[in-house]
Amino acid sequence: MTAITTAGTPGINRFTRSQLLRTAALFATDPDLERLVDLDSRERTWHRLDATDHLEIWLIGWPVGTSTGWHDHLESEGAFLTVKGTLAEHSWSQRTVHERLLTAGEGRTFGSHHVHDVHNLGDSPALSVHVYSPALRGMTRYALLDGALHATGVEKAGEQW
């Protein structure tokens, strides 16, 4: 896989979205993934699988009923793939919430500043692989109030997770 240089941003390397999804699919084939997170926890658990300045890969364990809350990934583009279970992604576009269900083996890509909330709405724990380029520097958190999203703060990588 070769990183591409983002037009108009000298020195910033990114992977294409299709490369990010293929990377998530490759990591999802590891039979030992479930050992890296606690699927019996009441809260989501995560484990960073790999990271460079240009690429970051996370594994997330999703107990039933857990969610991320509304957020974006700042300047990072990304992809995620459901390894086990079913995840529901709610995304925000043009003042409308869109829902997409992703069962085991299904994934999706997204651009920078994509605002979404991912849930395990199933009846069993779920597992997913998430890939970001460039490496995740933080996330903007949002609240949905009166039919609009409002930024509530920014979590910086390394400080809160």
TrEMBL record:
This is Cysteine dioxygenase. The keyword Oxidoreductase applies. GO terms for molecular function: dioxygenase activity. SUPFAM superfamilies: RmlC-like cupins (SSF51182). It comes from Pedococcus aerophilus. Transmembrane segments: none annotated. The keyword Oxidoreductase applies. It comes from the Bacteria. Belongs to the cysteine dioxygenase family. InterPro entries: CDO_1, RmlC-like_jellyroll, RmlC_Cupin_sf. Keywords: Dioxygenase, Oxidoreductase.
